[in-house]
Design brief:
Blueprint lengths: L1 E8 L4 E9 L2 H13 L12 E14 L4 H14 L3 E2 L9 E3 L3 E7 L1
Parallel strand pairs: 3-5, 3-6
Antiparallel strand pairs: 1-2, 1-3, 2-4
Length: about 110
Amino acid sequence: MAIFKFTADDSGNLSKIVVYYADDLLLTQPIIAALKKSSRKWIIPDKEKFHDFIIPFSIRLNASSKALAEVQKTHFDTYRSNTPLISADQIPLNEASLLPTIVVNYDVN
């Protein structure tokens, strides 16, 4: 899981990408790259110069039946020893639009 906040201007350009939570720092790099590719695509409410969006991402691993036990053990070991990345700033929910969760599925063989 990773939760981001970003700002879009009246032309749909992105700025101020903030990571509020990430299960693992490695998750943030491809998500930030994908968000940057979506620049100039965001529509904000009328008469606003800038608008903040909050977008959660959920990452799922789809393992084949023969790889399932190994993937589960690796995931558990990583989860147990990992410390999530958490922002010290609070999310301003009254000033941002919460978008639906983006689910990313990875097939593991």
